[in-house]
C-alpha cells in the first residue's frame, strides 16, 4: 500500500518536493475509489455499497449528479446496503478465482524434483543455527 501511495505521489508532484502534503488526500481518494483488478470493485463501494461521487463530477455535472433527488437517494442507499453482503461475497469469489488461476499458471512452470536420501540440499544458515 505504501508503495502505491509513493508511486501516486511521484506521478503528481513531478519534482516539487514540498507539494506532496497538498497532493496526499487526492492520491488516497483516488486509491479508494479506483476499482481493483481482482474484485472489480473499489474499496469505497465494498465498504459503503455505492459508487463515490468524484470531485470532477460535481464541477462538470453528469447524468447521475444532475438527476439527484434526496428521497430517491435514501431509498437507493438502503437497497444498496441490503445487497452489500452479496456484493462482498461476489468480490471475494472473484478474488479467490483470480488467485487460483494465478497459482495454476505458476504451478505449470514448476518442475517437481524428488529428493533421495543422500542428495545434497542447500540449507540456510539461520535454519541450521537458530542462535
UniProtKB/TrEMBL annotation:
Domain of life of the native organism: Eukaryota
GO molecular-function terms, A-Z: nucleic acid binding
Protein name listed in UniProt: Uncharacterized protein
Organism: Musa acuminata subsp. malaccensis (Wild banana)
